[in-house]
Automatic annotation (TrEMBL):
This is Flagellar export chaperone FliS. Belongs to the FliS family. It holds the Pfam family FliS. It is found in: Cytoplasm, Cytosol. The lineage of its organism: Bacteria, Bacillati, Bacillota, Bacilli, Lactobacillales. PANTHER family: FLAGELLAR SECRETION CHAPERONE FLIS.
Length: 121
């Protein structure tokens, strides 16, 4: 590991440890988008093991987002969000087994839209 990677890792760890709950969700969305893009790149290159690695990271991120949803009284927003994350997770599973570009792009777009909405709150 080079000095730069150690520095970046320490910076990221510090950013996570000191982040507000709102910022942590943003970090998860950003990481999900990043790993979706990396998976798409490796899919185009034919590197299926790397596609698998990065899609599993996105799957784990979507699960973390799902488990972070707080139930809200008198609102079905949390249930709808959980259903959305379940849909995304299913798409990622299929994308990984089928190595399907369109499914990855669907989830990436959804993550981008959710990030945009979250940042506007």
């Amino acid at each position: 590991m080079t000095y730069t990677k150690k520095g970046n890792s320490a910076y990221l760890n510090n950013q996570i440890l000191t982040a507000s709950p709102k910022k942590l969700i943003e970090i998860l969305y950003e990481a999900g988008i990043k790993h979706s893009k990396i998976a798409l790149y490796h899919l185009e290159q034919g590197n299926l093991q790397e596609v698998n690695t990065h899609l599993i990271k996105v799957q784990n991120i979507v699960l973390e987002l799902k488990f972070a949803v707080q139930p809200m009284e008198d609102s079905d927003i949390s249930d709808q969000l959980i259903s959305l994350y379940d849909f995304m997770y299913g798409q990622l599973l299929l994308a990984n087994t089928e190595k399907n570009k369109e499914r990855i792009e669907i989830v990436q777009k959804m993550l981008e839209e959710l990030l945009e909405t979250w940042e506007s709150l």
